Amino acid sequence: QVQLVESGGGLVQAGGSLRLSCAASGTISSINGMGWFRQAPGKQRELVASIISTGSTNYADSVRGRFTISRDNAKNTVYLQMDSLKPEDTGVYYCNLRNVLQGLRTNDYWGQGTQVTVSS
């Protein structure tokens, strides 16, 4: 089992910055991906950014150039630095960890979510 604990959400004005953190504990595969998803009211959950254990990153087009994902493998922690925030970035942000197991099977784990609200 894996537990994910998120922190860092809050209320910020447009143009401001926030930094999200997510610490993972439990049985974590040496090959894994960690990422952030968000869900706005009435919308589906969408990928914001992800980073795999080698350090390769992926971003949604809407946040590329404004958000930066990073990870500390020694601490099993992933960060999301969010700059130049826009009202449309508002939503609940969920941390995800995907363990890659033998035979390329995967298991997904989710944090409880943290609210990010950007006021105009």
What can you see in these coordinates?
This protein is mainly β and 120 residues long. 0% of the residues lie in helices and 58% in strands. It contains no helices and eleven strands. The protein has strands spanning 2-7, 10-13, 18-26, 32-39, 46-52, 57-59, 67-72, 77-82, 91-100, 106-110, 114-119. The strands form two sheets. Strands 2, 4, 5, 6, 9, 10 and 11 form a seven-stranded mixed β-sheet that branches. Strand 5 (46-52) and strand 6 (57-59) form a beta hairpin. The N and C termini lie far apart (40 Å).
Query: First CA to last CA: what distance?
Result: 40 Å
Mean pLDDT across the residues is: 95
DSSP summary: helix tally = 0
Q: In terms of per-residue confidence, which ranges show pLDDT below 50 for 5 or more consecutive residues?
A: none
Fraction in helix: under 10%
Shape: elongated
Strand elements, count? 11
| Strand proportion | over 45%
For the biggest sheet, the summary is: 7 strands, mixed
The topology string of helices and strands comes to EEEEEEEEEEE
Rg from Cα: 14 Å
Q: What structural class should be given to the helix and strand makeup?
A: mainly beta
